[in-house]
Design goal:
By secondary structure, the chain is α+β, with helices and mostly antiparallel strands. Helix content is about 50%, strand content about 5%. A 4-stranded mixed sheet has the order 1-2-3-4, with helices on one face. β2 and β3 form a beta hairpin. The longest helix is centred in the middle third of the chain and has 33 residues. It starts with a helix and ends in a 6-residue tail after the last helix.
Length: about 300
């Protein structure tokens, strides 16, 4: 079979496994490592796609060491070409939520010249140590332990199918609720938020709303690739530390993007001065100051400080 046929057959078998609830037929080691990859897929979809590509290569070419995923390795192959041509289009068709835009081999974790073995693989830029261990263990099981790559691929697709089915149920439920409420457009969302913000003790709500948007953006936006969203801090002046209400950090463990959010408080020159003072020794790519206060009352202050108000 060619690569496309391997992917299609594994998917058809995965559908049967999910519908018949046949999880116990898989070895515990397979379930352990693949389950953890699926558990962390929201922020690591490239890892999952790269694994699928590697397994397909092993099935189509059993003599290929799939830990050698680059042509500049001796006896290596181009996993990126295979992924771009077959795996990524396949994921877009069957698992669109977890598909990469172009290829899984464009992220720092997958594109570096590092062999995916137990020794050199420790250098992989995967923050979660257990995730890295599970990823590398699969390659060791296949290449050293002679595990069947077909079994890994079938189980991987079964878990993806199960996960996608749950997503579909949530989406369908949301559609039904929207139908009952009427068309949910951006204007309606803004009105709902405004009403929500008028409730007592609502000063934290704007921060939570923007933070929730970032939780969706960061795993799915190229701008935030390899970036991390810090947990929300205690919302009191005495306990609050850092550069703002919401902080995104880069690979160098320095702030990349910061958001300061005020509720019914105007942005004046004193607030701007405090922020400039707080960040003067730190290079931040973007710093947003947001407020629910009416913009017309402070727009001239922002222009005075040459701050973008568009």
């Amino acid at each position: 079979m060619n690569e496309k046929e391997i992917l299609e057959q594994a998917y058809m078998e995965a559908r049967k496994i999910v519908s018949e609830n046949r999880w116990e037929e898989f070895d515990a080691v397979i379930r352990r490592d693949v389950d953890f990859l699926i558990e962390k897929i929201e922020g690591n979809k490239s890892i999952v796609s790269a694994l699928a590509t590697s397994l397909v290569k092993k099935i189509s070419d059993p003599g290929q060491d799939i830990r050698l995923h680059r042509t500049d390795f001796k006896n290596g192959y181009s996993a990126r070409v295979l992924d771009t041509k077959f795996t990524t289009p396949f994921f877009k068709n069957y698992f669109p939520k977890y598909a990469n835009k172009e290829s899984a081999f464009l992220t720092l974790a997958t594109r570096e010249r590092i062999r995916w073995n137990g020794n050199e693989g420790k250098k992989l830029k995967i923050r979660n140590k257990k995730l890295k261990e599970s990823f590398l263990n699969i390659f060791e099981q296949v290449e050293v332990g002679n595990a069947d790559p077909k079994e890994y691929l079938r189980y991987l697709f079964s878990k993806l199918k199960e996960l996608s089915s749950r997503d579909d149920l949530i989406f369908q439920s949301a559609r039904e609720q929207i139908t009952n409420l009427g068309i949910l457009n951006i204007n309606l969302i803004i009105e709902m938020l405004k009403k929500h913000f008028t409730e007592k003790l609502s000063s934290r709500l704007p921060v939570i709303a923007i933070y929730s948007i970032y939780e969706i953006l960061i795993p799915n936006s190229k701008r935030y690739e390899n970036k991390k969203l810090l947990p929300l801090q205690v919302h009191t002046s005495s306990d609050k530390h850092g550069f703002g209400d919401i902080e995104i950090y880069g690979d160098n463990d320095e702030p990349f993007e910061v958001v300061e959010i005020k509720h019914n408080i105007p942005i004046d020159k004193y607030l701007i001065f405090d922020i400039v003072k707080k960040t003067e020794h730190t290079k931040i790519n973007r710093y947003y100051i947001l407020t629910t206060f009416h913009i017309d009352k402070w727009i001239e202050i922002l222009r005075e400080y040459k701050i973008n108000v568009a």
